[in-house]
Design goal:
By secondary structure, the protein is an all-beta fold. It is built from no helices and eleven strands. The protein has strands spanning 2-6, 9-12, 17-24, 33-38, 45-50, 57-59, 67-72, 77-82, 91-98, 102-105, 109-114. The strands form two sheets. Strands 2, 4, 5, 6, 9, 10 and 11 form a seven-stranded mixed β-sheet that branches. The chain has a four-stranded antiparallel β-sheet with strand order 1-3-8-7, with no helix packed on it. Strand 4 (33-38) and strand 5 form a beta hairpin. The N and C termini lie far apart (37 Å).
C-alpha cells in the first residue's frame, strides 16, 4: 500500500494550494481518509478527515472555514483545498487512511507560507 501526496509548495500569505493524495495497492473507498501536519519542532496534528461516503467531514478549529477536504473514490484519492493560507500553516502535510487506527501514511508534502 502506498499513499503519494503532492501539491505542496511555497505560497504567500492569503494564497491557496491544493494537496492531493493518491492511494495504490488497495481500494480505500470504505475507509476514512485524512490529513495531518507537522510543523518544525511541533508534534503532528490533525487537520481534517472525511468519511468513506464523503458526506461527513471534520476539521481542526485552526483550519475550519479555510480548508476543504474531499475525495474521489473512483480515483482512490483524497484532496485538501487550502485557502487564505497563513504563515502558521507552514508544515509538512501527511495524508493517512484509517483502518481501526490511522494505519497507512503518505510520505508528506511541504507547505511553506511566507508572510
Amino acid at each position: 500500500v502506498q499513499l503519494q501526496a503532492s501539491g505542496g509548495g511555497l505560497v504567500q500569505a492569503g494564497g491557496s494550494l491544493r494537496l492531493s493524495c493518491a492511494a495504490s495497492g488497495r481500494t480505500f473507498s470504505t475507509n476514512t481518509m485524512g490529513w495531518f501536519r507537522q510543523a518544525p519542532g511541533k508534534e503532528r496534528e490533525f487537520v481534517a478527515n472525511i468519511m468513506w461516503s464523503g458526506g461527513s467531514t471534520y476539521y481542526a478549529d485552526s483550519v475550519k472555514g479555510r480548508f476543504t477536504i474531499s475525495r474521489d473514490n473512483a480515483k482512490n484519492t483524497v484532496y485538501l483545498q487550502m485557502n487564505s493560507l497563513k504563515p502558521e500553516d507552514t508544515a509538512v502535510y501527511y495524508c493517512a487512511v484509517y483502518d481501526s487506527t490511522w494505519r497507512y501514511w503518505g510520505q508528506g508534502t511541504q507547505v511553506t507560507v511566507s508572510s
